[in-house]
Automatic annotation (TrEMBL):
The lineage of its organism: Bacteria, Bacillati, Actinomycetota, Actinomycetes, Micrococcales. It comes from Cellulomonas iranensis. It catalyses: Endohydrolysis of (1->4)-beta-D-xylosidic linkages in xylans. This is Beta-xylanase. Residues 347-373 have a biased composition (Pro residues). The keyword Electron transport does not apply.
Length: 467
């Protein structure tokens, strides 16, 4: 369903009515729509957030698994299939079979995708493990560029760099072959990712960064602050949040999330699992979910697997469904906490496109590049490209470019016949997409984008009416 915001009252209900009417008139059923609040994704969407899971490609044939995953989650991370060893098993020979399988399953079911991970000391292919120096730096940058280009236009956020800091009290970078290529390897990876896919949010992702007082947390914070100060393109920080009795949910978890958010980045809980059972485990899930709901720029939560038996830590029963697919106490508490809401009105940043040139680059499907034409009033122009299409649906990206006066709000009219139940970075009502609360202001000549999953056949790429 079109995302509605808690407490937005009559306007929201009117928008919902229009959205429902649109679907009825066009005869398209909303694929995974649920009654509000009855699933994790629906409950999270009430406050404009997503609720996601990691997916393993080989489990998608298990119908219990895929049914739960489709019903409950609207953000998908490939558990292993987009990592360096999976996507570039031999140098310069890329294999996207399993990554694409997960991506296509997600997009065909109206979900978004977090990409994981472009550069990491672990799960490197053998050929890379033995490299060093300039050759390794170039190989890493080539990998980032190639993989981000392959998935261009289809990824909500990339974990560009994963786990680059050491555990313990040093506050130092983790030693690795990548670190030994020079301290600037992380920012080089972010710049390469931005160049390859300007529409994806770019995240730094790590574990043991949940306690605000820990040296590792502070070290990552210092790096992100420095990146923001120097204009290194970073949009978000991922907190893996793998918890167990030795590493419990810290009482200052919300402080950690809000402190990073105050730097001007989104924060996301990216790999949540909490070992335990019963009410104690449920209470820990409540603490984590509530902390996110209380931080405006905490844009979503991903749990690291569907059922306990799917987990990398299966013996710790750390997830929301038991091995038979039954909802656990932790599930019910998580759902209720999402439905109750928090104090953080979500204000996620727009998808980071501020390219000064108004010509959008065509993505995977070789659609002709539309040249946006300025409206007579010069207020704005909009151009639609089709990122991906399949039988029965497609993913579209629309670039909105401000005219000489700049914008404080925009409205783009979609081609007639377009219907969607999944729009991001915009609000759909009656065939018109308006800016989200956070991306209405666009400086003269600058651009922002929104996207949507469309039902049926894709419209032609080209200029759209913008006001
Ligand atoms: O697919 C092979 C299989 O053919 C083989 O028989 C078997 C034998 O060991 O291994 C299988 O591969 C395993 C793979 O998971 C798929 O199940 C690897 O050994 C195993 O190392 C790998 O573990 C993954 C781990 O990352 C590797 O670091 C976990 O599934 C995955 O959940 C975990 O995810 C990481 C995040 O990426 C980063 N944060 C921490 C998180 C948990 O470790």
């Amino acid at each position: 369903m079109t995302k509605l915001r808690r407490g937005s009252g009559r306007g929201a209900r009117a928008a919902a009515a229009v959205a429902v009417l649109t679907l009825v008139v066009t005869g398209v059923a909303a694929g995974s729509a649920q009654a509000a609040g009855s699933t994790l994704q629906a409950a999270a969407a009430e406050s404009g957030r997503y609720f996601g899971t990691a997916i393993a490609a080989q489990r998608l044939n298990d119908s219990t698994y895929s049914t739960i995953a489709n019903r409950e989650f609207n953000m998908i991370t490939a558990e292993n299939e987009m990592k360096m060893d999976a996507t570039e098993p031999s140098q310069n020979q890329f294999n996207y079979t399993n990554g694409d399988r997960i991506l296509n399953w997600a997009l065909q079911n109206g979900k978004q995708v977090r990409g994981h991970a472009l550069a990491w000391h672990s799960q490197q292919p053998g050929w890379m493990q033995n490299m060093s120096g300039t050759a390794l730096r170039n190989a890493m940058l080539n990998h980032v560029t190639q993989v981000a280009t392959h998935y261009k236009g289809k990824i909500y956020a990339w974990d560009v760099v994963n786990e680059a800091f050491a555990d313990g009290s040093s506050g130092a970078r983790r030693d690795s072959n990548l670190q030994r290529t020079g301290n600037d390897w992380i920012e080089a990876a972010f710049r390469a990712a931005r160049a390859a896919d300007p529409g994806a949010k770019l995240c730094y992702n790590d574990y043991n960064t949940d306690d605000w007082t820990h040296a590792k947390t502070q070290a990552v914070y210092t790096m992100v602050r420095d990146f923001k100060a120097r204009g290194v393109p970073i949009d978000c920080v991922g907190f893996q949040s793998h918890f167990n009795p030795q590493s419990p949910v810290p009482n200052n978890y919300q402080t950690t999330l809000s402190s990073f958010a105050a730097l001007g980045v989104d924060v996301q809980i990216t790999e949540l699992d909490i070992e335990g059972s019963g009410s104690a485990q449920a209470e820990n899930y409540r603490k984590v979910v509530q902390a996110c709901l209380n931080v405006s720029r905490c844009t979503g939560i991903t749990v690291w697997g569907v059922r306990d038996t799917d987990s990398w830590r299966a013996s710790g029963t750390p997830l929301l469904f038991d091995g038979s697919g039954n909802k656990k106490a932790a599930y019910t508490t998580t759902l209720n906490t999402l439905n109750a809401g928090g104090t953080g009105t979500p204000t996620p940043t727009p998808t980071p496109t501020t390219t000064p040139t108004p010509t959008p680059t065509p993505t995977v499907t070789p659609t002709p590049t539309p040249t946006p034409t300025q409206n007579p009033g010069g207020a704005c122009s909009a151009a639609l490209t089709i990122a991906n299409s399949w039988g029965g649906g497609y993913q579209a990206t629309v670039t909105v470019t401000a005219g000489s006066a700049g914008l404080t709000g925009w409205r783009v009219t979609l081609p007639s016949g377009v219907s969607s139940n999944n729009v991001w970075n915009g609000v759909l009502s009656g065939g018109v997409v308006s800016n989200a609360p956070y991306n209405g202001t666009v400086a003269a000549g600058q651009s922002t984008t929104f996207g949507f999953i469309g039902n049926g056949n894709a419209p032609a790429a080209g200029a759209l009416s913008c006001a």
